[in-house]
Structures are given as structure tokens and as C-alpha cells.
Amino acid sequence: MMRALWLCLGCLMLALGVIGAFLPVMPTTIFLILAAACFSRSSPRLEKWLLDSPTYGPSLRAWREQGAVSRKGKAYACAGMTVGYLIFFWSAHPSLPLSIGVGVFFLASAAYVLSRPSPRPPAASGDPGEGSSSE
User: I want to staple 17 with a disulfide (CB 3.0 to 4.6 A). Which of 31, 67, 100, 135 is the partner?
Assistant: First the structure.
């Protein structure tokens, strides 16, 4: 029962990620990260398919292994949040408290994304220092 629930949730997250790939103000990667997490509990084949994707696999693996977001990803995320806020402000004509609240939420989200490390390059196989950190 739980496995089926995780599979359905993973498919929903995957669908939202695909939609986000085509809508400029909807995120993609976060939904794919969630889909991979759901598939890890329900379908190793679908999890592997996502992690091996040439388009999204590297960023998904960087997040899973290092909690890292690329500079390009950070720039796109912040740009998307800015555009999303501007569209919200322009189309909804929110009250001052609501516009401040949403703005603070977007700023906190952007601060979190910007605080993530950039991905480290993978260690070359056979390096004498492999597995140890000198940083």
C-alpha cells in the first residue's frame, strides 16, 4: 500500500516537474528532486531513470550527494522567483501586508538557494587523495 502511494506521489511530482519545464514561473528541479525521493521508496527503476537523465540527472545527483546547486541553477531559481513575484504583484494587486509577506517568503527562499554550495567536481578514480578531504 505505502509503495503504491509513494509511486503515485512520485508520478505527480514528475508531472509537476515536466509542467515546470514549460512554464517559466513554475520550478522544475525541486519537483524532480521530490520525484526521485518518492521513487527511491517505490521504484528503483524510475529513480535510476531520473538520476541518469542527461538533462536533469547531474543536478539531481549533486543535490542528493552534496546538497549542492550549480551557479546556473541558483541564477535561474532567483530569476524565476523575481519574475514570479513581479507577476504576482502586477496581476493580484495585493495589499501591502500580503505583498511584504510574499516578498519575505521569496527572499528567504532565495537566501536558502544561494546558501547552498556549488557542486564539487567528481574525484578522478585512482587519485591517492580519493575519499579524504583536505578542505
Answer: 31
Write down the residue that cell numbers 591517492 correspond to. Answer: 128
Going by C-beta distance under 8 Å and a sequence separation of 6 or more, which residues neighbour residue 58?
A: 119
Convert the pLDDT of each residue in 41-86 to its tens digit: 999 999 999 999 999 999 999 999 999 999 998 998 899 899 889 9
CB atoms within 10 A of CB 50: 21
Give the model confidence (pLDDT) of 4-26 as tens digits.
999 999 999 999 999 988 887 78
